[in-house]
Amino acid sequence: MEQLRLGVNIDHVATVRNARGGAVPDPVRAAKLAEVAGADGITAHLREDRRHITDGDIDRLVEALTVPLNFEMAATDEMHAIALRHKPHAVCIVPEKREERTTEGGLDVARDENRLAHFIAPLRDAGCRVSIFIAADSSQIEAANRIGAEVVELHTGGYCDAHFDGDLDARDRELHAMRDMATMAHSLGLEVHAGHGLTFDTVAPVAQIPEMRELNIGHFLIGESIFTGLEGAIAEMRRIMDEARA
User: Fold this and answer.
1) How many domains does the chain have?
2) Which of 20, 121, 163, 201 is the most exposed place for a label (fewest CB within 10 A)?
């Protein structure tokens, strides 16, 4: 199998910075360290309430990065305009609620096909690679394909939660669904990514899915960097992913 790409989400470096205010720690510095450590891309989620990544962070990431930037965003007019101004390599459309701590579940594409189709068309025309963050569900994959997405990112939160709750039956069901839906998405010509909650303990079975091409991981790596440094945490995740593919 070809090497699996690792996208590193640097949102929670900004979370720590914003907890106190000021300029440190700098998420752009973290992104550059991630490049050196082996990240294949950087993910940043500009939320409507700007709780972590700011507009200025996006400006500086676009200028500083030599690896692709994946811009996570809600399907709103404001985010649409920002993405079209910057034209990042990739745009991942995610659901967003003000009260949530982090992205909860996948986007319900099947219920909002017409609006989302019109939303992503200008992004694709601008050269952005459009990804849709969804549950491992056949109806959502079919809808993502119909609206013209090029990539689906499968939500791994349920799988990771079941693992750490010790519910091995639920964990295995989630993993089986991911495998089946990755095969289905690939058969439709969609590239398959995954992310949300992945750790050293949970990443290998997802990395072993043959159709998987990229994993996007953030919160765990930023937390682990407290103990091992960011470069060390990313290097270890890269090692586990590579061994799983081998």
Assistant:
1) 1
2) 20
